[in-house]
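pinging the channel bc i need a second pair of eyes. not urgent but kinda urgent?? the chain im working w is below, pasted from the shared doc
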Amino acid sequence: MTPEELVRAQRVYFDRCAGCHGALRAGATGPNLQPSRTLPIGTARLRTTISNGTPGGMPGWVRTGLMTAEEADLMARYIQHPPPTPPPRPMEMIRASWQLNVPVAERPTRPMTTRNWENFFGVILRDAGQVAILDGDTFELVSIVPTGFAVHILRSSTSGRYFYAIGRDGRVTLIDLWTPTPTIDAVVQGCSDARSVEASRFAGYEDRLLIEGCYWPPQYVVFDGATLEPRGMQSILSDAVTGEHLDEVRVASIVASRFEPVWAVSLKESGFVALVDYSQPEFPVVSRIPAVRFLHDGGWDHTGRYFMISANASNRVAVVDVRDRRFVTSFTTGLGPHPGRAANWQDPTYGWVNAVAHMGQARLAVYGADPEGSPENAWRVVRNVALPSAGSLFIKTHPNSPWVWIDSPVSTEPNAARRICVYSKARGVIDRCWFASDHGQTVHFEYNRAGTQVWVSVWDRTGELVVYDDRTLAEVTRIRGDWLVTPTGKFNVYNTAHDVY
């Protein structure tokens, strides 16, 4: 490869591949892509796999139009070379990146918008490097906020006033929703690559602190919640729970306890869940709970005590009791569980349950999640529900809904990537499936505050947002516009601030 090709290949790899395979290509959600494995496979087979995808959940990058054939060939050659080690990001670099646009004293002390801001939706426009703010009552576009490269998720401050956007380049953007038009009050970059951010939620700490978890370097950074001024940084590098030496450990997901001032941080490669105490100076890890390797996404049970995390490369869900600071158990669910924050509801037979769908298997696994009310069913799969295809990334429900919504955007079947299915909580079966669009991929669900409507993205350069009536499943409206470039995740202010899922 020429020096110019290597530079370009590093950018394509970071954009499309590093999230699953790692900066050092040691693998996690996706397999190892270091030369010891890729050289025997060879350029032709690698190019074909990259172009067409795999049943385990990798999309066909060329088939879906997300890569050109030239880029697939570039990647096939690049991953046969040794991976470069990205540079560190010390605190002095983080401080230098901090921009405070609007000091706290100059901000409004009450909402200045006449809109129902708690029913705003933040919609990620991934490839445009923007977040769109939409009015969930009127479906009108309120504002488009430039946030930088490939925002992964939004999180709300405890009050809901601020959206925190976290980009894959590690840039955190603080968006104030109380102004007449949403504004960027502060920006900082704590990581070179990141996926997770979370606010402090314990009583007395509301809106005061924010944690960013890095994919690279192996660290987390804590900021002031209102200004994003850097406050502290800690390394997360360690050996794995199984004893292997690791050069790369990534923060995969973070949840905030409402019972004590801690964040629970899942560490992907090592398999630990770290509890970070933000009431202490320097924001240390006060407990490192061994769980299962390759932790990824997840959320709270209905009580907010148990953190349930999919370990998708291990095909398991791990359960951690954050209150008692102990590992409870793990159990197999299927190939490549990937639920997002998942979904809590009451099953008519098994009590409180949660569920995961899978990237690599056409299955919704419903498992018991009520160790006090239904201990005989807790932490085991109680319903295996067949789906039309694999390739799921997200499931979603609401306390007021009779349904659990399921997508399949990374299915290797082109039409299946546009399919939505809904599961009936009352009957324990898939009620129906349908195609939401004739183009792109259908991905990610979010409810309005009342739980009466569901929004879903058509992930495409010509994107759409489809809004459904949650009771009847009828389409309410279809939002279009030239500004809707690759819409992915959507986050309702109230639901995100109150962990409604």
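so The helical segments are 3-16, 18-21, 35-41, 43-52, 69-78, 91-97, 493-497. and The radius of gyration is 21 Å. — does that match what u expected or am i reading it wrong
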